[in-house]
Design brief:
Blueprint (H helix, E strand, L loop, with lengths): L6 H7 L7 H28 L3
Length: 51
């Protein structure tokens, strides 16, 4: 096992691959959904469980 390639060396060999449009949409929708649900959670906790 002395000649196992290191992870960083393998990353340097990889070619750059841009994100596909559908991947960009999925990332955007995921972030937006996360922000909306976080806001909903904060609103519910303040409304029903005031501190």
């Amino acid at each position: 096992m002395p000649d196992e390639p290191k992870f960083s060396e393998e990353l340097k060999k990889m070619e750059y691959e841009p994100l596909l449009p559908v991947e960009k949409k999925l990332i955007g929708w995921s972030l937006a959904l996360g922000v909306v649900l976080l806001g909903l959670l904060i609103w519910i906790s303040n409304k029903f469980f005031p501190g």
